[in-house]
Structure formats: C-alpha cells, structure tokens
Amino acid sequence: MPIALAFFVHYAYLILFLWVLVEQLGMPVPSIPVLLTAGTLSATHRIHHSYALLAVLAACLIADSVWYWLGRRYGGSVLRLLCRLSFEASTCVSKTEGYFLRRGPVTLVFAKFVPGLSTVAAPIAGQTGMPYNRFLMWDLAGSILWAETFLLAGRFFGDLAKRSAPFFELLSHFAFAIFIAMVLGFFAYRLLKQRKFLQQVRDLRLEPAELKAMMDAAEEQGNIPPFIVDLRHPLDYLPDPRVLPGALRIGPNEIRQHSEIIPRDRDVILYCTCPSEETSAKLAMQLHKMGIYRVRPLRGGFDGWKAAGYPLTDYVEDVPHAQPLLPVAQLSSPAGN
After folding, report:
1. Domain identity same for 187 and 211
2. Residue 120 and residue 95 share a domain
3. Do 56 and 35 contact (CB within 8 A), yes or no?
4. Is residue 177 located within the same domain as residue 241?
5. Residue 31 three-state SS
6. What mean pLDDT comes out for the span 75-89?
7. Of 170, 187, 202, which residue is a domain's last?
8. Res. 227: pLDDT tops 50
9. Mean pLDDT of 303-325
10. 207 and 299 in contact (C-beta within 8 Å)?
C-alpha cells in the first residue's frame, strides 16, 4: 500500500473530522474529495463507514453550533466576516437570507449542497432567533444527508473497483495523486471564477466619495440626483434600518419585476451589505444586459457609506407591490424624490 494511502487509512477518522471541521468553520478547503476517498476505502473495509460518518457529523455539528451562537450574539458582523473569509463570491449573505425568508429551517437540510449557503446558514439561523434545539435537529438532518451522499457515492465507486482487482490495485497507487488533483482543480476553478468576478466589480463600482459628490452637485445645481437602490434583505435592517438619502428599497429577487421604474437616463447606484459588493455588482451586470447601462454598485455598500460619515435617513416608503408601478418619467421628477 502506498505510504500516503496508508497514512490516510491509519488516521482516517481524525483527518475526516479535522478536514470537515476546518471547512465548516469557513476555510476554503473542499471536503467532498475527502468524503469520496473515505467512502471508496470503506468498500474494502479498510475504514468503517459508520465511524467515518460519526467523525463527519461531529465536525459539522461543532462548527455549525459555533457559528449559530456567534450569529445569535453578533448578527450581521459575523456574516460579513464570513463573506471576507470565503473563497467563493456566491457566499454573499443576501442569497442565504433569501432562502431563509422563503423556506425557513428547511434551508438547513440542503444548505451544505449549495455554494454560498453552507457556512452562513448557521449564523443566520442564530440571527433569526431560531431555538437551538430546533436548529440542531434540522442541522443534523442536513449534515447526515450531505455526508452520506458523498460517502455512499465513494463506496459505490469502490464496489465497482473491487470487481476488477488490477484496476483497484492501480487505483490504490494513484489515489493520493488523484485526490491532490481534485483539490487543486477545485481551488483553481474557484480562484479563476473569483478573479473574473472581482475584475468585473472593479470596472463597475463607485466610491462613496464619488456618490456624495454627485448628490451634492445635483442639489447645488437643482438637478435630479442619482437613483439609489437599497438591495438589503429585511434581516440586514435589524442593526440599522436607515438608508442612503433618497434610496428606494427593492429586494434582489424583485429587481427584474420592478426594472421599469429604474430610469435609463440617469445614474443608478445599487448597494447591499456584502464586503465585495457581490449582490449589487451581479445585479448591475444583469441590468446592463437589460439595456440599463448607467448603473454601478457602491463600493463598501451600506457599511462603506456609513463608515465614511455620510448622511443616512429614515426610510419612508417601500416599492409598491399591489399598486401599478409609476412611469419612469414621473419617478424621475424632483417631486418624486
């Protein structure tokens, strides 16, 4: 047996526990290759499937409980920290908050399968005040489903390989190399995806000082100010419900259905609470494709504007849902602002 494979077999449960724990705590290390490897080895009875499952579940429940209590105590600040730690741009918290608002605790069952949900689901559950015993029940169900999916997939592959002794012998010699290739491929894919996204964001985003100057100039000259859209989810309003002056609240999932109220002939500024401006940047690119070209995400979002000491105001009116939407020209008039 190759040395690397022998080492993995000898310390399999500890490796599984630590690897999954580190990933679930927010570090960008993929656990799926490790689970598949463990499942494959369980087919030859080199490791026990049940012990491997227990190691994975222990890691998941410990990490998720830590994030649950941090989310319950510190709320949005913990979620923003996770956004910064994440290697995957899609972990922006607004996506996960949307799932929770629509599906509630059921989100925890499939969270680990969805990029952007896995780590932030637990602190959002804590932030929403979900009872811990209820959280633990749903989180355990989701952890079992996630772990068993990949452990059993690996075992199925191992059972197939066992039927061909030469193939399995060859596989055992290259197992470590295959594992490393899977991990490196995973990192390369996510790195390239993130770099592409960040480049697009850099080309679009607007500095808070630039927006403030635009607003001041419009006020001094009597012109129409930029059209500002607050993309935050209701959970983001808990620490501070104020908005940028003149901002209109439109949820990320509602931006398309309300696209007709977004003017084409003036600057449109989007902001959220994501450190990398992911939500506002993605929606800005979507609006570009819809023919709305003068739209840009605000760098730093709400927190960046607030940290700069610029004014915030109480929100007055939501986007109308039951009533017909006003024409763009009417919304663009000074009286509508």
Report:
1. no
2. yes
3. yes
4. no
5. coil
6. 64
7. 202
8. yes
9. 72
10. yes
Distance separating alpha carbons of residues 172 and 179, to the nearest angstrom = 11
CA–CA separation, 198 vs 277, rounded Å?
9
Query: How far is residue 243 from each of residues 67, 201, 272, 316, 325, measured CA to CA in Å?
Result: 28, 22, 11, 10, 21
Rounded distance between C-alpha atoms, residue 157 and residue 139, angstroms: 27
Q: What's the whole-number mean pLDDT along residues 107-136?
A: 86
CATH number of the domain that residue 264 is part of? 3.40.250.10
Say whether pLDDT at 103 is over 80: no
Domain region containing 16? 3-202
Q: How confident is the model at residue 228 (pLDDT cuts 50, 70, 90)?
A: very high
Q: In 3D, which of 260, 264, 267 has the Cα closest to residue 246?
A: 267
- Which of residues 183, 202, 221 is at a domain's end? 202
Check whether residue 110 and residue 168 sit in a common domain: yes
- Mean pLDDT score across all residues of the chain: 79
12-54 pLDDT per residue, tens: 899 999 999 998 988 878 888 889 888 888 887 788 999 999 9
Q: Do 195 and 226 reside in the same domain of the chain?
A: no
Q: Are residues 166 and 231 in the same domain?
A: no
For tokens 């859209």, name the residue: 229
Q: What is the dihedral of CA 17, 23, 28, 34, to 10 degrees?
A: 40
Task: Provide the domain count of the chain.
Answer: 2
